[in-house]
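User: Let's play a game. I give you a shape written as tokens, and you guess the letters that built it. Ready? Here's round one.
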């Protein structure tokens, strides 16, 4: 019974944070490469790639392979920040690509509604556009072509 309650609690905590986690059918490096390709194909800017596991290794610590891709659309981001400057704390957008303890490649990102829930925004069309884009990027990047 305790295990069932723990699973239920963890499930609700993931949904409460509006974090979406999806499996990728390709390697971590290929997934990251695919994210770059699909984001750039939509004329968005790639701002950074952060190698979390590489950074951990530099300080003598171990971490499953994990890379954060940070990207965005300055036009959309500016419109959101014009409504509430603190949105800039959560932009640009990011996708975390990582291997879980079983070696499965996963992609994690925040649902666009999280922006509207945490900031003073009246932008349902823009947050829907964020959701549509993130869904497309991750589905395309992790597909079993």
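Assistant: Ready! My guess for every position:
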């Amino acid at each position: 019974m305790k295990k069932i309650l723990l699973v239920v609690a963890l499930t609700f905590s993931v949904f409460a944070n509006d974090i979406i986690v999806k499996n990728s059918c390709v390697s971590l490096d290929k997934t990251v490469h695919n994210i770059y390709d699909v984001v750039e194909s939509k004329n968005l800017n790639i701002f950074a790639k952060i190698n979390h596991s590489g950074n951990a290794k530099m300080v003598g610590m171990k971490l499953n392979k994990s890379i954060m891709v940070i990207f965005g659309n300055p036009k959309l981001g500016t419109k959101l920040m014009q409504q509430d400057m603190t949105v800039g704390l959560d932009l640009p957008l990011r996708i975390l690509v990582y291997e879980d303890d079983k070696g499965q490649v996963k992609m994690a990102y925040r649902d666009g509604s999280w922006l509207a829930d945490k900031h003073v925004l009246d932008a349902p069309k823009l947050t829907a556009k964020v959701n549509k884009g993130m869904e497309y990027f991750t589905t395309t990047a992790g597909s079993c072509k």
